[in-house]
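dude i think i finally got it to work??
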Amino acid sequence: MKWRAAPSELVQIFDAAIGALPEAEKRKMFGYPAAFSNGYMLAGLHQESFVLRLSPADYTAFLKIEGAIPFEPMPGRSMGNFVAVPPAMLQSPEELQSWLKKAFANAKAMPPKAPKVKTLRRK
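look at this
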């Protein structure tokens, strides 16, 4: 399955939103822009979706927003506590930033992930 690149407008929205969280670490995940804290992804892009990882309580509350859906990178394969931001919210920087801060707080509250140890492969 070949995934589509995120639209440049969505990348700009992501960059602006993450720019307001200087503690978040920006890097790529599966070729898409993403933001991390404590080693956990808190937000990212996937094709035409802006994705947030929320606490269970925030996840439930977020899904009550019109147009909000669980994030499914492939149909029928939802990722626990990840949501796709509704298009209308992408046009409201204040509302998006509010939920992004909740995603950041959720990742920051998790125990830090141990860094992966790179192993040498034998030929």
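DSSP finds four helices and six strands in the chain.
im so relieved honestly
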